[in-house]
Specification:
about 0% strand; 2 domains; mainly alpha; about 110 residues; single chain
Length: about 110
């Protein structure tokens, strides 16, 4: 579609905008557009996760010597560092931190 190419947007975005305009008129122009998914974790949460991943579990009173993704995830949720996180997201987050922790390459 020429309009999509001119505005450098996906054709589906153009169709959605045209449909909204047809339904709501000029009011559709004033609706704020969402820019992707909302941020899931704050910088403080990310720093806390990286710090805990580098702390041996036994120093926190836990009965094991190394973190697994599942154990670290459960600990973070239990301690209310965050509400929820998948093991895969946690793995990517730890890898992104480039910290030398045992969990980063596990699972």
């Amino acid at each position: 579609m020429d309009i999509a190419r001119l505005l450098e947007v996906h054709v589906h975005t153009t169709y959605a905008d045209l449909h909204a305009f047809q339904q709501q008129g000029l009011d559709s122009v004033h609706q704020p557009r969402r820019a992707g998914a909302p941020a899931g974790l704050s910088d403080v949460q990310v720093q806390t996760i990286w710090r805990l991943a580098q702390t041996p579990p036994y120093e926190l009173g836990l009965p094991y010597g190394r973190w697994s993704l599942a154990k670290l995830r459960a600990y973070l949720i239990r301690q209310r560092v965050l509400h929820k996180i998948s093991r895969e997201h946690l793995r990517r987050l730890l890898k992104k931190g480039a910290s030398p922790c045992a969990v980063c390459s596990a699972n």
